[in-house]
Amino acid sequence: MKTEMTEQELLINRTGIMTHPELSAELIQGVKEAEPSSEGDLSEIAANRAEYLEEATPIGSNPVVVADDEADGAEEPAAALETGAEALPLLLDKLGERLAFERQGTRLYEALLQKCELLGEDDAGPSLDDLRHIHEEEMEHFKLLQNVITEIGGDATVQTPSADVAGVLSQGILQIVSDPRTTLAQTLQAMLNAELVDNDGWQMLITLATTLGHNDLESGFEKALESEQEHLENVRAWLEALTLKEASAFPGVDGIAGSEPQEGQSKSRSGKKKQTSRSNKRKKK
Ligand SMILES: [Fe+2]
Ligand SMILES: [Fe+2]
User: What is the pTM of this model?
Assistant: First the structure.
């Protein structure tokens, strides 16, 4: 007779082999007896990959400069850059990558905000205002890049090769953030990945832009990097505080460092208190 599983039974993790050690021998025996479903070995897979690599065309082509010197009344279209002018498509490619990432970042924070609104704020996690604040900054970064691309003669609607790669990379992050089953801590783990990439991305963009002689872009980009550093610190602190809070719920771990973050503060790995954006934001106002 078929019996229905209770919800508690369904939530038991049975993915590991040690849950039923007596069945593991049977499983290993089954693997030994089973025939491979196709012929060949790893060398054939490698040969196949090599063939694809030889025939592959690039994932996309670099964007072209669309503004010309005759453009409607513009004072200095394409920014008339002498230094690194020929490398402009490369810069546009990387600007396009950040543009795509910031657009995605804005959507990520929208999804996270909605999740927090529905689940309610957690003392150890971000407040709704914290998330709105970061969301606004991601949007500002998107607009900054849109303007820069246009000013130096590019087309901000172009999907550049690096933007394509960045888009594929961040698909997993969006999936985790928008998955209704993920906890706030799991969602913040995904956001931490995004913010780490965001920080490195801005750093590289500053180096590339200045190397190519676009020193005028440096201060705006540095400002964006500063806010990205704040996002990273905050997301890291919230994730740590939530994880430690979860740990402190178990008997015997009450005294764990950082288990009880106070208003506007969380503790770092060293136990040193650091400010979250709640307090950072207060400073800004
Ligand atoms: Fe960002
Ligand atoms: Fe960010």
Answer: 0.80
